[in-house]
Amino acid sequence: MREAGVNLVSVGIFSWSRLEPEEGRFDFAWLDRVLDLLHEGGIQVDLATATASPPPWLSHQHPEMLPVLADGVRLWPGARQHYCPSSPIYRSAARRLVEAMADHYAKHPSLVMWHVGNEYGCHVPACYCDVSAAAFREWLQARYGSIEKLNEAWGTDFWSQRYGSWDEIVPPRRTPTWPNPSQQLDFLRFSSDALLECYDAEHEVLKKATPNVPVTTNFMVGFKPLDYWKWASHEDLVSLDSYPDPSDPASAMRAAMAGDLMRSLGHGRPWILMEQTSSRVNWRDVNVPKAPGQMRLWSFQAVAHGADGVMFFQWRQSRAGAEKFHSAMVPHGPVEQSTVWHDVVRLGRELGNLEPVAGAQSTASVAILFDWESWWALELPSKPSSRVRQIEQVEALYRPLFEANVAVDFAHPGDDLSQYRLVVAPSLYLVADEAAAGLVRFVQNGGALVMSFFSGIVDPSDHIRLGGYPAPFREMLGLDVVDFHPLADGEEVGLDFADGKQGRGAIWMDEIHLAGAGALATSIGRPLITSHSFGRGTAYYLGTQPDASATARLLQAAVAGAGVVPVAEVPAGVEAVRRGAARKSFLFLLNHRDAGVDVPIQEAGVNLVDGAQVHPGLMHLPPRGVAVIREGW
Ligand code: GLA
User: Fold this and answer.
1) Catalytic site residue from 20, 119, 575, 631
2) 314 C-alpha vs ligand 1 centroid, how far in Å?
3) 286-309 tens-digit pLDDT
4) Which of 23, 43, 199, 413 has the fewest C-beta atoms lying within 10 Å of its C-beta?
5) pTM for this structure?
6) pLDDT digit string (tens) for 24-33?
7) CA 339 to ligand 1 center in whole angstroms
8) If you ran DSSP here, which 8-state letter would residue 543 be given?
9) Domains of the chain and CATH, by start
């Protein structure tokens, strides 16, 4: 570990059955030895609470703590994460273990961070058993107070679903056809909260024992079931597990987006890359290894987007178990021959050189709105088109900003947006009154907004906002969406831009009636992309999904119009990201191409990766090469 520059390790994540081999009997001797050895070696510990995989004795004694799927199938033990989040049996056993661990390790000198559970919701995001049903009813009572209010919120007059008492309510289990959408939405909210209660219970124990030790739990990329805005506010720092597919050309963009989201979830504070793989995973159909230099490049990319630490799953490749073909820092074979090990050692050394970057925060003038509740509601069934997927719509508008090296934050629609010049709202289907009013105010006060189709359609109960689509934004956008016209798979419409350029639209087409807005693009004479001066700002509307180059042109115009400048002008395929404030900043240059490239440099500085002086002019970056230039010091 010292050779690889390791200074922090996560320990004990799945070791409940070792730590508590039988109910109430704890065995910490083996873990003491591990922690002592690490401490002697100068390595700090992110100690896991080990509650992500209950031991066999627990489910054997209490099979009722196992989770149940929507169709009534109970999951068996034998893998991991086999617990009902609302089970009092699981919760009290987890609490007892965490209390014992906190008590035993509170004073251990290696302990610098707590790692609660593991990837909450990854395999079992929701449970539909009777215990969960009772917990759901309690959650609903707290939300609505009266059954009348629930009936109103769920629109239960439709299909004779009116409830007379709380006892009649069950989770949206497998039904003859679509369960009530408002009920489904509430169950998604409840399920995220039920797991958060598990996290909170452990968090409370840990904070009591070690008030100054930061607590985290590892998030995942593009993970729908948990409302990470809510979760992140319960953590001391955000951490992420990131496994981009080396064979997918979109991976670099997706990893950048995930990093921006993590930084934003922590309101700009540094986050930590808790897990990545040194090379291959084992859970895709075909597990392509990372290309030479890709692990290093993507590690630096995480730091560029705000990570202050880069960690791996896993240290040593296992000999047995379901993940024995997953790469590790230390492979099965001899390390001397392993390029993976060589790369890991090099990364450790180079990350050590980045010490001055730690803690540096970034600023962005552009924010993309991202809301789990809207995501959940958008993707419930029985919509005009199931082809409108939240992440795809966000990516469609993130990509051109990423490619133009424009710094981007993510924001919740209800956030104060006044620090931004441009806000992007990709298919923001569900919006609360206050958030809608906040967006309108943002434009009124001089902001630029790019909003795409199927936004502002429903309220938080998933009820249509009446008065014409999109009711809260019609005046601001200067238009009425008279009706939706989803496009068939493969169908495209031509776009004629006001500047004479052509493009294509896919997935969706709004029937737009202009009421003050001007058409930026039409399709057979009908307006599809518009802009409207409203108050002191401008609101753009995309009534279709334009092709990539049309989207890029539109966003570039919006960015320039809002007075936002990119981080740097660099060749295509090179990503430029800045961390830190003006005159005390670090410019990350990341060459995602598998060919070398010359990058224009404006300002002198020092490349922290190798300590070399950097001069204005052209700087050569080898294939997948990186530079971190300390500027203006
Ligand atoms: C997740 C888990 C790890 C491991 C890896 C494999 O990130 O947290 O325990 O299963 O996936 O990629």
Assistant:
1) 119
2) 9
3) 999 999 999 999 999 999 999 999
4) 23
5) 0.98
6) 999 999 999 9
7) 22
8) S
9) 8-67+79-125+196-356 (3.20.20.80), 366-561 (3.40.50.880), 574-631 (2.60.40.1180)
